[in-house]
Amino acid sequence: MRSVIQRVSEARVTVDDQVVGQVGAGLLVLLGVGPDDGESQVEWMAEKLVGLRVFEDEHGKMNRSLLDVRGAMLIVSQFTLLGDCRKGRRPSFVNAAPPELAERLYDSFVRAVGRRGVETAAGKFRRQMQVALVNDGPVTLIVDSPEPGGAGDD
Protein backbone atom coordinates (compact mmCIF):
# COMPACT_ATOMS: atom_id res chain seq x y z
CA MET A 1 0.00 0.00 0.00
CA ARG A 2 1.34 3.40 -0.93
CA SER A 3 0.17 6.83 0.10
CA VAL A 4 1.19 10.31 -0.87
CA ILE A 5 0.25 12.67 1.92
CA GLN A 6 0.11 16.42 1.79
CA ARG A 7 -0.36 18.69 4.78
CA VAL A 8 -3.14 21.05 3.76
CA SER A 9 -4.94 24.10 5.03
CA GLU A 10 -7.90 22.96 2.90
CA ALA A 11 -8.70 20.33 0.28
CA ARG A 12 -11.70 19.11 -1.67
CA VAL A 13 -12.59 16.53 -4.28
CA THR A 14 -15.22 17.12 -6.95
CA VAL A 15 -17.08 14.59 -9.12
CA ASP A 16 -19.38 15.77 -11.91
CA ASP A 17 -19.17 19.38 -10.66
CA GLN A 18 -20.30 18.31 -7.17
CA VAL A 19 -18.05 18.51 -4.11
CA VAL A 20 -18.12 14.99 -2.64
CA GLY A 21 -15.44 15.42 0.05
CA GLN A 22 -13.90 18.42 1.74
CA VAL A 23 -11.68 19.18 4.73
CA GLY A 24 -10.10 22.18 6.36
CA ALA A 25 -6.69 21.88 8.00
CA GLY A 26 -5.29 18.36 7.99
CA LEU A 27 -4.03 15.85 5.45
CA LEU A 28 -4.89 14.98 1.89
CA VAL A 29 -4.07 11.30 1.35
CA LEU A 30 -3.79 9.78 -2.12
CA LEU A 31 -4.01 6.02 -1.54
CA GLY A 32 -2.83 3.23 -3.83
CA VAL A 33 -3.52 -0.45 -3.10
CA GLY A 34 -1.34 -3.31 -4.32
CA PRO A 35 -2.52 -6.82 -5.24
CA ASP A 36 -0.94 -8.41 -2.16
CA ASP A 37 -2.24 -5.82 0.33
CA GLY A 38 -4.71 -6.79 3.02
CA GLU A 39 -6.17 -5.65 6.32
CA SER A 40 -2.78 -5.61 8.04
CA GLN A 41 -1.55 -2.98 5.56
CA VAL A 42 -4.78 -1.00 6.06
CA GLU A 43 -4.36 -0.96 9.84
CA TRP A 44 -0.63 -0.19 9.63
CA MET A 45 -1.18 2.71 7.22
CA ALA A 46 -4.08 4.17 9.22
CA GLU A 47 -2.07 4.04 12.45
CA LYS A 48 1.02 5.50 10.75
CA LEU A 49 -0.75 8.43 9.10
CA VAL A 50 -2.92 9.38 12.07
CA GLY A 51 0.17 9.45 14.31
CA LEU A 52 2.66 10.93 11.84
CA ARG A 53 4.14 14.10 13.33
CA VAL A 54 4.00 16.54 10.42
CA PHE A 55 2.36 19.53 12.10
CA GLU A 56 4.38 22.24 13.78
CA ASP A 57 4.60 22.74 17.54
CA GLU A 58 5.11 26.08 19.29
CA HIS A 59 8.82 25.98 18.31
CA GLY A 60 8.14 25.46 14.61
CA LYS A 61 9.23 21.80 14.70
CA MET A 62 7.16 19.06 13.07
CA ASN A 63 6.17 17.45 16.35
CA ARG A 64 2.39 17.19 16.28
CA SER A 65 0.15 14.55 14.74
CA LEU A 66 -3.22 14.86 13.06
CA LEU A 67 -4.82 13.87 16.37
CA ASP A 68 -2.81 16.48 18.27
CA VAL A 69 -4.02 19.31 16.02
CA ARG A 70 -7.55 17.87 15.63
CA GLY A 71 -7.15 17.87 11.87
CA ALA A 72 -9.20 16.04 9.27
CA MET A 73 -8.20 13.65 6.47
CA LEU A 74 -9.43 13.69 2.88
CA ILE A 75 -8.76 10.27 1.34
CA VAL A 76 -8.68 9.79 -2.43
CA SER A 77 -8.14 6.44 -4.14
CA GLN A 78 -5.37 6.64 -6.73
CA PHE A 79 -4.21 3.43 -8.40
CA THR A 80 -1.73 5.38 -10.54
CA LEU A 81 0.56 5.65 -7.49
CA LEU A 82 1.53 2.07 -8.23
CA GLY A 83 2.34 2.76 -11.87
CA ASP A 84 5.76 1.58 -13.06
CA CYS A 85 7.39 4.01 -15.50
CA ARG A 86 10.82 2.40 -15.73
CA LYS A 87 10.25 0.85 -19.17
CA GLY A 88 8.82 2.50 -22.24
CA ARG A 89 6.66 5.59 -22.24
CA ARG A 90 3.37 4.19 -20.96
CA PRO A 91 3.05 3.34 -17.26
CA SER A 92 2.39 -0.27 -16.35
CA PHE A 93 -0.21 -0.83 -13.66
CA VAL A 94 0.42 -4.53 -12.96
CA ASN A 95 1.42 -3.55 -9.40
CA ALA A 96 -2.04 -2.11 -8.68
CA ALA A 97 -4.72 -4.25 -7.06
CA PRO A 98 -7.77 -5.37 -9.05
CA PRO A 99 -10.62 -2.87 -8.59
CA GLU A 100 -12.72 -5.12 -6.33
CA LEU A 101 -9.86 -5.63 -3.84
CA ALA A 102 -8.73 -2.02 -4.06
CA GLU A 103 -12.22 -0.68 -3.35
CA ARG A 104 -12.70 -2.99 -0.37
CA LEU A 105 -9.36 -1.98 1.17
CA TYR A 106 -9.87 1.71 0.36
CA ASP A 107 -13.23 1.67 2.17
CA SER A 108 -11.63 -0.24 5.04
CA PHE A 109 -8.88 2.38 5.28
CA VAL A 110 -11.42 5.23 5.49
CA ARG A 111 -13.19 3.38 8.32
CA ALA A 112 -9.88 2.58 10.09
CA VAL A 113 -8.90 6.26 10.15
CA GLY A 114 -12.34 7.21 11.47
CA ARG A 115 -12.08 4.61 14.26
CA ARG A 116 -8.93 6.39 15.40
CA GLY A 117 -10.89 9.57 16.07
CA VAL A 118 -10.13 11.52 12.91
CA GLU A 119 -12.81 13.27 10.87
CA THR A 120 -12.68 11.82 7.36
CA ALA A 121 -13.91 12.77 3.93
CA ALA A 122 -13.43 10.71 0.78
CA GLY A 123 -13.51 10.76 -2.97
CA LYS A 124 -15.53 8.34 -5.12
CA PHE A 125 -13.90 5.08 -6.13
CA ARG A 126 -13.44 4.49 -9.90
CA ARG A 127 -14.74 7.93 -10.80
CA GLN A 128 -13.06 10.82 -12.59
CA MET A 129 -12.24 13.30 -9.81
CA GLN A 130 -10.81 16.77 -9.56
CA VAL A 131 -8.76 17.35 -6.42
CA ALA A 132 -8.05 20.88 -5.21
CA LEU A 133 -5.82 21.68 -2.28
CA VAL A 134 -3.74 24.30 -0.57
CA ASN A 135 -0.52 22.53 0.46
CA ASP A 136 0.62 23.93 3.80
CA GLY A 137 4.39 24.20 4.03
CA PRO A 138 4.59 22.71 1.48
CA VAL A 139 4.76 19.31 3.15
CA THR A 140 4.45 16.22 0.93
CA LEU A 141 5.56 12.70 1.90
CA ILE A 142 5.38 9.21 0.39
CA VAL A 143 4.56 6.41 2.83
CA ASP A 144 4.79 2.73 1.83
CA SER A 145 3.40 0.02 4.09
CA PRO A 146 5.55 -2.99 4.93
CA GLU A 147 5.36 -5.81 2.40
CA PRO A 148 2.86 -8.51 3.34
CA GLY A 149 4.64 -10.99 5.60
CA GLY A 150 7.60 -8.64 5.99
CA ALA A 151 9.14 -6.83 8.93
CA GLY A 152 6.62 -4.62 10.71
CA ASP A 153 3.64 -6.55 9.31
CA ASP A 154 1.68 -7.28 12.46
From TrEMBL:
Record note on quaternary structure: Homodimer.
Assigned keywords, A-Z: Cytoplasm, Hydrolase, RNA-binding, tRNA-binding
Compartments it resides in: Cytoplasm
GO MF entries: D-tyrosyl-tRNA(Tyr) deacylase activity; Gly-tRNA(Ala) deacylase activity; Ser(Gly)-tRNA(Ala) hydrolase activity; tRNA binding
EC number: 3.1.1.96, 3.1.1.-
Biological processes annotated in GO: D-amino acid catabolic process
Protein's gene: dtd
CC per GO annotation: cytoplasm
Role noted for this protein: An aminoacyl-tRNA editing enzyme that deacylates mischarged D-aminoacyl-tRNAs. Also deacylates mischarged glycyl-tRNA(Ala), protecting cells against glycine mischarging by AlaRS. Acts via tRNA-based rather than protein-based catalysis; rejects L-amino acids rather than detecting D-amino acids in the active site. By recycling D-aminoacyl-tRNA to D-amino acids and free tRNA molecules, this enzyme counteracts the toxicity associated with the formation of D-aminoacyl-tRNA entities in vivo and helps enforce protein L-homochirality.
Chain span(s) of sequence motif Gly-cisPro motif, important for rejection of L-amino acids: 137-138
Protein name, per record: D-aminoacyl-tRNA deacylase
Pfam families on file: Tyr_Deacylase
Keyword Hydrolase applies: yes
Catalytic reactions of this protein: glycyl-tRNA(Ala) + H2O = tRNA(Ala) + glycine + H(+); a D-aminoacyl-tRNA + H2O = a tRNA + a D-alpha-amino acid + H(+)
Family label: Belongs to the DTD family.
Superkingdom: Bacteria
UniProt source species: Pirellulimonas nuda
PANTHER family associated with the record: D-AMINOACYL-TRNA DEACYLASE 1, D-TYROSYL-TRNA TYR DEACYLASE
HAMAP family in the cross-refs: Deacylase_Dtd
Domain notes: A Gly-cisPro motif from one monomer fits into the active site of the other monomer to allow specific chiral rejection of L-amino acids.
